[in-house]
Write a structure and sequence with these properties.
Blueprint: H1 12-31, H2 37-58, H3 65-92, H4 98-111, H5 113-122, H6 124-130, H7 132-140, H8 148-171, H9 185-192, H10 194-204, H11 255-261, H12 265-276, E1 293-299, H13 313-321, E2 324-325, E3 328-329, H14 337-346, H15 356-359, H16 369-375, E4 379-387, H17 393-396, E5 405-408, H18 424-435, E6 441-446, H19 460-465, H20 476-501, E7 508-514, H21 533-538, H22 545-549, E8 550-551, E9 554-557, E10 566-567, E11 571-572, H23 576-583, E12 606-607, E13 613-615, E14 618-621, E15 626-629, H24 639-660, H25 662-670
């Protein structure tokens, strides 16, 4: 056998084609369950084409001994990228771009090294399977020079593969828009393969004027025919003798003039779009919280399904005695915790995954509620009960309107024990006294007690609170999840008690929602889940993004108890910032935010980064291209096309704002 090693004249272009197609096939079958044959054939053909390009390059040196090893080394690196993306999507239920992988991997690799090592050990066989073609070529192939005729054949096969790919995309199914208007990385990889998804992602990551896409011209779709009914308290309100004329929530920007005088075509395009957006009006709730304290809490892996009048009485009280949201969502924004934080803090779609919040340092996001209250003289501070450098929060959160940031190892350790994960209750006990006498205050918390893993061995809070959930009718995994979320309940009990003892509960507003749904309960090798525990927690198997990401929003103040204010239209995390801006009566421009003030006359809209959307009239699924009306609802002709265009513009706007640092241009205008 030994004498046969390295004796077979395997063409290097064939090796590259087979390897790329093979890796694409494995990644597709191991991460995607669509069952679509045309989609798999598209992925396969794009893989052949990608491998063909690499093979043609290799042909110029693959006939030499050193060239063989260089070709094998390059394909090994390419294969490693497929391996990494497999593990990423297994852990986070979403593919990630190169920028996110490189920018966000540091903390994960160091802080969760035990999880990473256990995962690699458990799924080492997958790594070996991925690398089989590289091993085979390295061991068996002999260098073989390639003639121009052979290069021509290889180039022809490559061109044919791409031609067939595009024929499948544009001739079969509903995936064509994923290449253009409905592009997002995760869907592109699932529809076209990793090589196409990453290529498109790199192209769209450019900040050059040439990289700018186009906004959909809304004149080409029907206009709004009716306005949404704003929510009202359920009790009867006194009638005004004269109708109130409400002013629009806008700032002193002349976007039409800015567009005419702007030399940068990309910035001018954003100006024109913003100028076309209808601003929302002030309303009877404008300024309701003027001058009050604010505490915003992003709760790790929180789910509204844990709220129970007996098990979590404080969360139940806050959710039902404040403003009640009956149809709220926290979409999965193509990353993990930091992208969820970004959506809450900025009111924008996280176009760069986990790097979005870091990129916020590059521009003046003056509309964040932290910065708006900071300008009004509020004392402000942000807290996190895990490592203060994780996701670079020590470098990011001060840019969102908080004077300082405290985490473990820069102050939090003085009041919180260093276990995994740390206690939310201990954080509240320790930090509230630091600011409770410094009114008005604007505070931000990112909790950690609800973080995976959901076992009594892997989560100190699950271990601490497990006795309280032993009688619940769930598996051990779900019990462990609920047990660690109980630490958030105890934290909120501590917070409310301290506010009431200080006599400022009526003058303080608490906002709480999740950073993302508990994806670590999904069936996953990463989290050692052999079944889908999300379905067990929910009581149903999510069939779409809306069912998966349905969650709870708490917006409470002592002054709201007994008011019975209900918002029953679809709302989501991007609505939090404009709603708070209106309630606190600060000056802001509603045209610059993706979401809506839920008390305004704007029609409700929830969107996901993969172009799923939901309104009060129904749900659109881009996977099937179908709109499902809500029960008993019919829509006018052109409604779906109008909302699709609106969603495309909002997502494109978010991407453009982040890539061009658009708010810096506006900050210069204000100055």
């Amino acid at each position: 056998m030994r004498e046969k090693l390295g004796k077979y004249p395997i063409p290097v272009w064939l090796f590259a084609m087979v390897t790329a197609a093979y890796c694409e096939s494995l990644l597709h079958f191991w991460t995607t369950d669509s069952g679509s044959l045309p989609r798999y054939l598209t992925v396969l053909c794009f893989g052949v084409g990608f491998g063909g390009i690499l093979g043609c390059i290799f042909s110029f040196f693959g006939g030499k001994k050193w060239g063989k090893w260089l070709s094998a080394g390059v394909m090994a690196l390419v294969t490693v990228l497929y391996i990494v993306e497999y593990f990423v999507t297994d852990a986070y239920v979403s593919f990630m771009g190169l920028g996110t992988l490189l920018g966000g991997a540091k903390g994960v690799a160091t802080d969760f090294a035990d999880v990473v090592l256990a995962l690699v050990a458990r799924d080492f066989w997958r790594i070996l399977v991925f690398l089989l073609p590289v091993f085979a070529y390295a061991l068996l192939a002999a260098p073989k020079p390639m003639s121009w005729k052979q290069r021509g054949i290889a180039a022809g096969v490559t061109a044919a593969a791409y031609g067939l790919s595009f024929a499948l995309v544009f001739g079969v199914g509903t995936d064509a828009a994923r290449l253009t208007t409905d592009y997002n990385l995760d869907s592109a990889i699932r529809c076209f393969g990793l090589n196409v998804g990453l290529t498109l992602d790199l192209g769209r990551g450019s900040d050059s004027e040439e990289a700018a896409g186009e906004f959909v011209t809304m004149e080409t779709v029907p206009a709004v025919t009716e306005e949404a009914e704003p929510p009202h308290p359920e009790q009867t309100q006194p009638q005004e003798t004269q109708p109130i004329v409400y002013e629009p929530n806008v700032m002193d920007f002349d976007f039409a003039q800015l567009a005419e005088t702007e030399s940068n075509k990309r910035i001018a395009s954003i100006h024109k779009y913003v100028n076309s957006v209808k601003p929302t009006l002030q309303n009877e709730y404008t300024g309701l919280f003027k001058g009050k304290n604010l505490i915003v809490i992003a709760a790790e892996s929180f789910s509204g399904d844990v709220i129970d009048p007996e098990l979590t009485p404080t969360l139940y009280r806050l959710a039902n005695q404040g403003i009640r949201f009956t149809d709220f969502y926290q979409p999965m924004w193509g990353g993990s915790t930091s992208s969820g934080e970004f959506s809450i803090l900025s009111g924008l779609v996280a176009a760069s995954g986990t790097n979005s919040i870091k990129e916020g340092r590059q521009q003046d996001l003056f509309l964040s509620i932290g910065k708006q209250l900071q300008k009004e003289g509020y004392y402000s501070q942000a807290f996190h009960n895990h490592l203060y450098t994780f996701y670079d929060r020590d470098k990011t959160h001060t840019f969102y309107g908080y004077d300082s940031f405290m985490g473990m190892h820069n102050g939090m350790e003085e009041g919180v024990r260093e276990v995994w994960p740390e206690s939310d209750r201990e954080m509240m006990d320790f930090t509230v006294p630091l600011y409770i006498d410094k009114q008005p205050f604007s505070i931000y918390y990112m909790t950690v007690s609800g973080h995976a893993r959901y076992t009594t061995d892997g989560n100190a809070m699950s271990r601490k609170n497990i006795d309280a959930v032993q009688d619940l009718p769930y598996s051990d995994k779900v019990k462990a999840y609920i047990a660690c979320q109980l630490e958030l309940e105890y934290a909120m009990e501590s917070l409310v008690r301290q506010l009431e003892e200080a006599g400022i509960a009526d003058d303080t507003v608490i906002v709480l929602t999740a950073d993302h749904y508990p994806y670590a309960l999904e069936k996953s090798a990463t989290w050692d889940n052999r079944q889908d525990y999300v379905s067990e927690l929910y009581g149903y198997k999510p069939a779409n993004n809306a069912q998966r990401d349905h969650n709870a929003l708490i917006l409470w103040s002592g002054c709201l108890e007994g008011k019975n204010i209900v918002v029953d239209t679809p709302t989501y995390s991007l609505d939090i910032l404009p709603t708070l801006s209106n309630l606190f009566g600060v000056e802001y421009d509603s045209r610059l935010l993706v979401g809506r003030d839920v008390f305004s006359d704007a029609e409700p809209l929830v969107l996901w980064y993969d172009f799923t959307w939901k309104t009060d009239k129904g749900l659109f699924n881009p996977e099937s291209g179908k709109f499902t009306p809500a029960e008993g609802v019919s829509v006018e002709e052109g409604y779906v096309d109008r909302i699709k265009a609106l969603v495309q513009n909002k997502i494109h706007y978010s991407r453009e704002v982040q890539q061009t640092d658009y708010f810096n241009y506006l900050a210069k205008v204000m100055s």
